[in-house]
Design goal:
The protein is built from 19 helices and 21 strands. It is of the alpha+beta class. The strands form three sheets. An eleven-stranded antiparallel sheet has the order 1-2-13-14-15-21-20-19-18-17-16, with helices on both faces. The model is unreliable at about 1-15, about 45-130, about 140-150 and about 215-225 (pLDDT under 50).
């Protein structure tokens, strides 16, 4: 496999010269240090008089750390008896550190405790000289904070899959899953019923037909209540592409390409073990175990993560298949909220150089925590369904084809334009990274009591990182429903002539498009350079924006970021764009899943640089100003697309 060496390094090379006992010793010590740092952060948070935390929240944190320590100890001692003495040391150390932390917090913050007693696990931010008050609290469940011990589970899975017994079980599961996928892509009724959104799975018929695979997946209770079973989501989509199957297969089996091309849905993909591989470039029979995490186009929707086996096989001379199947039956987790049944794609030769690509997406998931505004969008399969995955593949194919066509000398991209496309691609991936509801993205819920348009938004801190963010920043996001089609909203937002109608930071200014590079066959799919001109002096540029906009059959995006004019000129003259930081804001536009094309879900994401911000402190004036920008933008977009005379 083309990049298996790198993939394996990502999962296992760090431990390849160590025994299992040494691996676990090393990982346990690293965990000591990690928790030590996190506890020190928590101590600082509790001790700070300006950042009040209630007694209730401290008790939640204490119980969460205790639970995590016990869970880690149980996980490791269950499979490696050598760690039994370590468990008591580890948990004892945790109890001691938590008690010290708790005592320190009580001694140093009695006044803060009294202030917080009226509002559990929240703190108030008040803007100086303003009557507007915002409440900020964690946007995360207690279970998710206390029980996510991802590093330890990854280590256990990566060690286990190397044993012969697990290899046989995983291969058997993968072969069975491939046979199921092949059948599900071919069959129609009664297994699949046609509907407006495509095809819906007949669950009774599925159980009757695939009972052997179903036996691997007993119905699990809901992770929060332990009473409600997980809900089933299933969808199927077919498209015809003029692309060789090996290119699609390589995209899915090469972890670097998979994470890059599908970054609008893939938050993280890590290869934990390669169980079977062939000659370089030949993926027939390749089997690998992965830890994956998927995200939707709104940070209000929680990420879905699981361990899975990904298996590729050439079914005959004219067809390839790539299938994913969850490893829940082999590595059970009582907190599972997402289980991936056999899902993937089948690529068949059609005619005239075309190949038929059929994608099946099938899972069981807990959607009880999805907010009402996104509920039907998620449960209907629009958020994570086959149409989303396949439309991303189609867009990538169209984008590359469109750029290749420009190799004609008259249409050929210059080096500068190619570098600008690379920077725009980096901006889009940063935007999707900001959208993700992952453990690293610690979103906080914000609500302003005096606003009638949006009553909730979420905010998080972004640290400075080379090539991503030029300094400490805050990102705020909100998802709203707008009574207009996704296409109408997309056209309004990507058109520079209507920008001053919704962008309050450009209101009263003239916006000019100085460069545009088309990167798809759909009108509006392009990368643009926009200049905001001063109303007093049209020759003076107030700011320069890099913007990318594109639309697929499943979703649309308009993303932009301020970039120094000198950096743009450097790139267009052939300079390297890798070290140019971009802090994107923008919009994701999707159908609400309920009303067809009459109402859309629009997620507004706004990012600002703020040197005073930190993971534990969001400056009050920044929170309030960002909130006002988002609410005013939402009102302006709604007015612009609902009122036909406002389209300009």
């Amino acid at each position: 496999m083309g990049s298996n060496g790198e993939e394996k390094k990502d999962g296992n090379d760090e431990y390849q010269d160590m025994s299992i006992a040494e691996i676990i010793d090393y990982c346990t010590n690293a965990r000591y240090e990690e928790i030590e740092r996190e506890l020190e952060e928590m101590k600082s948070y509790i001790g700070g008089g300006s950042r009040v935390q209630s007694e209730v929240q401290r008790e939640v944190n204490r119980s969460s750390w205790k639970a995590e320590a016990l869970q880690i100890g149980c996980l490791l001692t269950k499979h490696c008896s050598i760690l039994i003495p370590k468990k008591s040391l580890f948990t004892g150390w945790i109890h001691q550190r938590i008690n010290n932390l708790s005592d320190s917090g009580r001694d140093n913050n009695d006044q803060g405790n009294r202030m917080a007693s009226s509002s559990s696990s929240t703190y108030n931010v008040q803007t100086s000289g303003s009557s507007h008050e915002s409440e900020i609290k964690p946007f995360r469940s207690r279970t998710e904070v206390g029980m996510d011990f991802e590093r330890e589970r990854n280590l256990f899975v990566s060690v286990s899959v190397g044993t012969e017994a697990y290899k046989i079980k995983i291969l058997d599961l993968a072969i069975t899953a491939m046979n199921e996928l092949a059948n599900m892509t071919i069959e129609n009724e009664p297994l699949w019923h046609p509907c407006i959104a495509g095809r819906i799975l007949n669950c009774a018929e599925y159980i009757k037909k695939f009972r052997q695979v179903d036996s691997h997946f007993p119905v699990l209770p809901n992770a929060e209540t332990y009473t409600n079973p997980l809900q089933t989501e299933a969808s199927r989509e077919t498209r015809f592409l003029a692309v060789q199957p090996v290119h699609i297969v390589e995209l899915l089996m090469n972890n670097d390409k998979y994470s890059h091309v599908l970054s609008n849905m893939v938050s993280k993909a890590k290869v934990l073990g390669v169980l079977s591989t062939q000659a370089q470039g030949d993926y027939n029979g390749a089997l690998q175990v992965m830890a994956v995490e998927f995200h939707a186009s709104s940070p209000l929707v929680r990420n879905r993560k699981c361990y899975l086996a990904r298996y590729c096989r050439r079914l005959n001379n004219n067809a390839w298949g790539v299938v994913d199947v969850s490893l829940q039956s082999l590595f059970p987790n009582p907190l599972t909220r997402y289980r991936r049944r056999p899902s993937g794609c089948l690529i068949e030769r059609f005619r005239d150089g075309l190949f038929k690509v059929t994608w099946v997406e099938h899972c069981e998931v807990d959607n009880s925590l999805v907010p009402e505004v996104c509920r039907y969008f998620v449960t209907s399969g629009h958020a994570y369904g086959a149409k989303q995955w396949l439309s991303t593949l189609v867009r990538q194919h169209e984008r590359l084809t469109h750029i290749r066509v420009r190799r004609d000398p008259k249409l050929q991209l210059s080096t500068g334009e190619a570098n600008l496309l690379i920077l725009a691609d980096q901006m889009m991936r940063n935007f999707w990274r900001n959208l993700s509801f992952s453990r690293k993205n610690r979103w906080m819920l914000v609500s302003l009591s005096d606003d009638e348009n949006i009553n909730k938004a979420i905010i998080r801190f972004v640290k400075e990182k080379k090539g991503r963010c030029p300094g400490p920043a805050l990102v705020m996001a909100a998802t709203i429903r707008i009574p207009a089609s996704a296409r109408r909203i997309f056209n309004f937002l990507q058109d520079e002539n209507s920008r001053s109608k919704w962008d309050i930071l450009s209101h009263g200014h003239v916006v000019q498009q100085t460069r545009s590079i088309s990167n798809g066959c759909v009108p509006g799919n392009r990368v643009s350079i926009l200049e905001v001109k001063s109303p007093e002096d049209p020759d003076r540029t107030v700011k320069t924006l890099l913007q990318e906009s594109f639309s697929t059959s499943a979703c649309s995006y308009v993303t932009f970021a301020p970039v120094e004019a000198s950096s743009i000129n450097m790139i267009l003259n052939g300079g390297d764009s890798d070290n140019v930081p971009v802090a994107p804001s923008g919009f994701s536009i999707l159908p609400d899943g309920l009303t067809g094309d009459e109402v859309s879900l629009v997620t507004i994401v706004f990012q600002i640089l703020d040197s005073a911000a930190s993971p534990m402190c969001f400056p009050a004036h920044s929170v309030y100003n960002m909130y006002k920008v988002i609410t005013e933008t939402a009102k302006a977009i709604t007015a612009g697309v609902v009122d036909p005379y406002n389209m300009g």
